[in-house]
Amino acid sequence: MPKQIRAKNLTLSDAQKEHIEKVMENFKKYGLDITRIIANVMEEKKRIHVEFEVHVAHSEPIVINEIDDTFEEAVDKAGKRVEKALRRLHDKVKSPKHESLRTILNEIEE
Predict the structure, then answer these.
(1) Cα–chain-centroid distance for residue 55?
(2) Which domains does the chain have, with CATH numbers?
């Protein structure tokens, strides 16, 4: 899974890059076939704008934007939102169709 970190209007320290990579590692726990992750970090009007673009095979890319005052908060909030989207996609792939109430009741009676 190729990872790309881009910065615009600011320079990222090694610690900040490691923090982004640590957040990206959490995306693997859902067992989806992630083909590429792109993290864009930019500074706009003294605020930090973070965008994660996660490409999953056989699905539309997940694009999450977050703006915050501090770098760590913006990255963490965006990471949590990506994890939420990946969790929902995982649940959708795992059980694409829900059984009807009638089917469940018939199984219970038998």
Answers:
(1) 9
(2) 3-109 (3.30.160.100)
Q: What is the mean pLDDT of residues 14-39?
A: 93
- Would you say residue 109 has pLDDT above 90? no
Residues in the chain: 110
For residues 54-80, give the mean pLDDT: 94
pTM of the model: 0.81
Task: Output the DSSP codes for 13-80.
Answer: -HHHHHHHHHHHHGGGGG---EEEEEEEEEEETTEEEEEEEEEETTSPPEEEEEEESSHHHHHHHHHH
Residue 90: in which H helix or E strand, if any?
helix 71-94
| 13 class by beta-carbon count within 10 Å (0-12 exposed, 13-18 middle, 19+ buried) | exposed
